[in-house]
Amino acid sequence: MTSNAIDSRGAEQSASPLSRPGSGGRDEPRPDGAGDGGRSGGSTTPATKPNRARVGAVRPLGIGVVTLWLSVIVLLPLAALTAAAFSEGWAGFWEAITAPAAIAALWVTVLVSAIVAVINAVTGTLIAWVLVRDDFRGKRFVNAIIDLPFALPTIVASIVLLSLYGPNSPIDVQLNATRWGLIVALLFVTLPFVVRSVQPVLIEADREVEEAAASLGASSWTTFRRVVLPTLAPAILSGTGLAFARAIGEYGSVVLIGGNIPRETQVASQYIQQQIEIDRPVNAAAVSVALLAIAFATLLLLRVVASRTQRREERDA
Amino acid sequence: MRVGTGTRITLRVLALGYLFVLVAVPIGVILWRAFEPGLATFIASISTPAAISALNLSLLIVAIVVPLNVVFGVVTALALVRGRFRGRGLLQAVVDLPFAVSPIVVGVSLIMLWGVNGWFGAIDRAGFQVIFGLPGMVLATIFVTLPFVVREVEPVLHEIGTEQEQAASTLGADRWQTFWRITLPAIRWGLTYGVVLTVARALGEFGAVIMVSSGFPGVSQTLTLLVHARYIDDHNTYGAYAAATLLMGIALLVLLLMTLLDRKRSDR
C-alpha cells in the first residue's frame, strides 16, 4: 500500500518533463519522508486508501478548468482583438495605425508617458529616500498616502484633480485640456510605482559602504552618485518602466482633464474609444494591438534587464 | 551617506511639497467642495434614485465577481504552484497579462469576442445580450481583477508546502477535508487580501466597464459611470464631486483594511 503510493508519485513526477528541480516550496522529498514516517506507524493504513492520488497534487481536471477559465476570460478576447485588427490583412492593419489621427494619438501617449516616467524616476527616488532615511512627525501617514492613488478609482482621480486644476480652479491654475493636465493626472496615478520599488532596496542597502566612501573624503553628492545610485538603479528602472506601461494605457484619469483634443491631448485609449463610437472597429482593434505591443515590449525589456542585473550580481557575489 | 541637516531638510521639503501639491491639496479641495453645502446636501446627492441604483449595480457586480475570482483564483494558484504540466510557464504569463492591458483595450477585446459581430456573436443574436448588458460588465471586471487572488494566494501556498496536507491524508482525511481543514485556513489571509484588492478594483473600474455598458442612468450605470455621466452629460459638477467622494470613502476604507491585513499577515 505504502510503496504503491510512493511508486505512483514517483511515476507522476518523472512523467512530467517540465518539473523544474529546486524551484522553491515544491521540493517533494521532504513531504514524502514525512508521509513515510506517518505511514510506517501503520495504524492508519486502511484509511489511506482513498488518498492514493498524491495529496496536494493537481489533477488533470483542475488544470483543464484553469486553462479553460484563463482562455475564456483573457486569451480569447485578446485573440479576437488581434484577429479583428488583421481582418483586412497587414495592409489594413498598417493603414489603421498610420492614419494621421492614430499616429498623433500614439505619439502624444508615448511622449507624455515618457515625460511622466522620467519625472517619476526623480521624484519617486526622492520620496523613497525621504521615507527611509529621514525622520519626521507624521512619516507613517505620508507613507500611507503613497498607496492612495492605487486605491482610488481612476475616474475619481480625474475628478479630484479637476476640482483643483479644472475650470473652477480655486487657485486659478487651469490645466484642463492641456498636455500639462495629462501629465499631472498620469503623475497622480503612477505615483506609487517608483517609490514602492525603491523603498525596500534602500532599506536593505549596506550603509557601511556609504560611510566608507564618506570617510575617504567623498562628498555626499559623490557618495550618492557613485555608491547609492548604482545600487538603486535596477529598482528605479523597474519602477519607471512599470509607470510608463501603466501610463500608456491609462484612460479613466485622463478622460475628464485631458479634453480629448485630436493631435493635442487625445491619447491612444481615447482615440480607440472614439473609433468604437463611430463604428470603426478595425481601427480601434489595430491601435489597441499597437498599444498592447508597446506595453509588452516595455515589460519584456524590463524583464531582460532585471535578469541580466541579477546574473551580474550573482557573478559578483 | 551622511547628509547635512540643510540638505536633509531641503529634500524633505521637496518630497513633501510634491506630495502635497499632487495628492493632498486636490483631495482636500474635493472634500471641501463636497461637504461645503452641508452634509444634508451631500447625502441627498448620493441618495438620488440613479445614485442608489448605481451603487446597487456596483455591489451586484462585486457580488458576482468575488466568488468567481475566489474559486477560480484558488484553483489557478494550486495548479500553478503544485501542478507539473506542459505550458505551466505560459499560464503564469497569462495570469499577469491583465496588468499589462489598458482598460479600454479590455473593453474592445470583449466587444470583438462577445459583440454582435464578434466570434461569439451568435450568443448575442440568440437574444442573450452580453455586451451592453450585465454579463459584459462582469466579464470586463473579472478580466481586470483576475490576477489579484492568484498572486496573493500563490506565495502562501509555496511557503506552506504540502507536509501538513500529507499528514492529514495519512490520518485518513479525504481531499475535501484536507482542503477545508488544512489548506484553506493556511491561505486565508492571503486570500482575504486578494479579495480586498478585487473588491477595490471592481468598484473602481471605469475604462473597461464604460466600453461594454450601455450607461443608462438607473439601469446600467455603475458608481464610476455615474461620476462620469454627472460631470460630462448632466453638467452636475457637484453631483460628480459627491459621488466621487463616496467612492473615495470606500477606497480609504479599503486602504485601511489592507494596512490591517498586512499586519495580520506578517504576524503569522
From TrEMBL, chain A:
* GO CC term (a single one): plasma membrane
Q: How does it sit in the membrane?
A: Multi-pass membrane protein
Q: Biased-composition ranges for Polar residues?
A: 1-17
Q: Keywords on this record? A: Membrane, Sulfate transport, Transmembrane, Transmembrane helix, Transport
Q: Which domain of life is it from?
A: Bacteria
Compartments (UniProt record): Membrane
In terms of InterPro entries, this protein maps to: CysT_permease, MetI-like, MetI-like_sf, Sulph_transpt2
**Residue ranges, annotated region (Disordered):** 1-51
Transmembrane ranges? 61-86, 106-132, 144-165, 177-195, 227-248, 284-305
Q: Where is the ABC transmembrane type-1 domain?
A: 106-302
Q: What does this protein do?
A: Part of the ABC transporter complex CysAWTP (TC 3.A.1.6.1) involved in sulfate/thiosulfate import. Probably responsible for the translocation of the substrate across the membrane.
How does the record describe its quaternary structure? The complex is composed of two ATP-binding proteins (CysA), two transmembrane proteins (CysT and CysW) and a solute-binding protein (CysP).
**UniProt-recorded name of the protein:** Sulfate transport system permease protein CysT
The UniProt GO MF terms for this protein read:
ABC-type sulfate transporter activity
User: Is Membrane given among the entry's keywords?
Assistant: yes
What protein family does this chain belong to? Belongs to the binding-protein-dependent transport system permease family. CysTW subfamily.
Q: What is its main location?
A: membrane
Q: Which Pfam families match?
A: BPD_transp_1 (PF00528)
Q: Which PROSITE patterns match?
A: ABC_TM1
Q: Is Nuclease among the key words of this record? A: no
TrEMBL record, chain B:
Q: Spell out the GO cellular component terms annotated for this protein, sorted alphabetically and separated by semicolons.
A: plasma membrane
Which GO terms fall under molecular function for this chain's record? ABC-type sulfate transporter activity
Q: Subcellular location, in the record's words?
A: Membrane
Ranges annotated as spanning the membrane: 12-35, 55-81, 93-114, 126-150, 191-218, 238-261
Pfam families assigned to the protein according to its UniProt record, in alphabetical order: BPD_transp_1
Principal localisation? membrane
Q: Where is the ABC transmembrane type-1 domain?
A: 55-259
How does the protein's chain sit in the membrane according to the entry? Answer: Multi-pass membrane protein
Record's keyword terms, sorted: Membrane, Sulfate transport, Transmembrane, Transmembrane helix, Transport
Tell me the function of this protein. Answer: Part of the ABC transporter complex CysAWTP (TC 3.A.1.6.1) involved in sulfate/thiosulfate import. Probably responsible for the translocation of the substrate across the membrane.
Oligomeric and partner information: The complex is composed of two ATP-binding proteins (CysA), two transmembrane proteins (CysT and CysW) and a solute-binding protein (CysP).
What is the protein name for this chain?
Sulfate transport system permease protein
- Species whose genome carries this gene: Humibacillus xanthopallidus
Lineage here is: Bacteria, Bacillati, Actinomycetota, Actinomycetes, Micrococcales
